């Protein structure tokens, strides 16, 4: 009989690995706040292995050896990057003991910000090694439920190798769900070829993924900017763009209980933490107890009415704790209102003026189902649902709130507002395509 369910995480490229690093740091902090006994339980087993150094091969590990006291936690993760800098830095940092050195695949030269180099050249070159590493990670699972893939769309490794791995997973594990968190470049991206890479990668995501959570760089920058304006610096009393002195419990804080201290944070950590919190909130029901837990595969079953219409708009509330800005505690009803506003979305679009196909509410903390239903009835008149799915709500209640917060809300909406983001990307692609200089650059990169 299967004892528990595990998820495997794939981080591809610089962006994917940096977000993954923030995710594992925050996940450790979250589990440390709940697991006071120091025992390896089902909650931990979802994303971590309990490693006994005496056994390296999963075939030689005795039955039940993963139970009992925590020995050494290893993340159920595969790290891939064709430029070894970020992964090497992670393996020298405070999280180095969390990652398995046998689950890393790196190169030196990189993909030159070119989708074709990553997908066709490096993907083919590393195909067998990727299959072996993924198979090894899967063999450590008692019950493999799904894969999470984190990557960017603008770079060569994230878009090219990332989508190659997606194809590989479909071939080798056709019955296992594939969740993708893809970071889309902003209009002012410094990578000239990012529109090409993004459009080519999107075709693969549409065909091969089961569920895609698009995240826009510009939306993350806007959120961090708002947080920076709301939180005064402890030293100067002035508002800052990237908060440097944030109290414990903030959505962008990783000190006190985490492995990474505030002084060690990098410029993009604030943005990456927002995406990491998205993944933590989405998987909370699968990791902790609750009165209405949601299996991750239920997200796809309830929010994707037709194949390929699997791009979901995510929003979160709160984005920071009320203690940070010295305001009265956030009311529960206000939290629901915030989650349906464009300011809390990880995509720059307005869902209220578009059509909802379905919506999921992932609530954490001491919240009753009656509170959720009351807020749904309050918000429904302002939300336009498609006629054949007027009651298209999926609700999840997890009893364990995020660290330092009373409760939180993650909404995942299948909403037509996402077409505006894709249209903007297409327009940037067409504009670049018309410039022959940019095409010469692509040919140069392909030939190098």
From TrEMBL:
Q: Would the keyword Nucleotide-binding turn up in this protein's UniProt record?
A: yes
Coiled-coil positions: none
- Please list the residue ranges annotated as the Tubulin/FtsZ 2-layer sandwich domain: 292-427
Is Nucleotide-binding tagged as a keyword? yes
User: GO cellular component terms?
Assistant: microtubule
Tubulin/FtsZ GTPase domain: residues covered:
59-290
Q: Which InterPro entries match?
A: Epsilon_tubulin, Tub_FtsZ_C, Tubulin, Tubulin/FtsZ_2-layer-sand-dom, Tubulin/FtsZ_GTPase_sf, Tubulin_CS, Tubulin_FtsZ_GTPase
Instruction: Kindly give the Pfam families that the UniProt entry links to this protein.
Output: Tubulin, Tubulin_C
**Which key words tag this protein in UniProt?**
GTP-binding, Microtubule, Nucleotide-binding
* GO MF terms held by the record: GTP binding
Q: Which domain of life is it from?
A: Eukaryota
Annotated GO biological processes are:
microtubule-based process
The record's family statement is: Belongs to the tubulin family.
PANTHER family, alphabetized: TUBULIN
Q: What is this protein called?
A: TUBE
